[in-house]
Write a structure and sequence with these properties.
Elements (H helix, E strand, L loop, with lengths): L1 H11 L3 H6 L10 H134 L5 H12 L1
Helix pairs in contact: 3-4
Amino acid sequence: MFITQAIAATAAQPGAAAAAKAPFPPFDVSTFAGQVFWLAITFGALYFIMSRVALPRVEKILEVRRLRIEGDLEAAAAAQKSAEAAVAHYEKTLADAKAAVQKNVQELRERLAGEADIRRKALESELNARIAAAEEKIAASKAQAMSNVSAIAAEAAGAIVRQITGREADSKAVAQAVAGVKA
């Protein structure tokens, strides 16, 4: 509905029929020379502005970016070298610390083994002394017991003879008989 009203309004204006028959202005052959002239002036002005103002600014921005990127890459390479050096230093320090710890452990082990050996030898000598003292006591007790055994055996033999025969046995004969059995 709106379109039909617009067409009716245009048709009612004088000269509307002549404008409807005229070609599209940019394609009108009578205005080509003016259009080409203004195109050349506009293109020249645009080219001048672009080459003198806009493109140098863009080129400067690109150069600044390129320099910043190169600087960042150099800083990153330096940081990487620094990190590699730090890792190498860390690994060397770690290896040195491990070697020192192993050396300390070995020294401690040897010292403790030496101390243990000294204590073992002292204990062995103390035990050997105790064993020797105990053997002497045993030998003394055995000798005393053996001397008592002879007396006990002689006494027992005398008691047996008295029991069997009813009279006292000769103590010297009984002692010789006990001594003869012992040998």
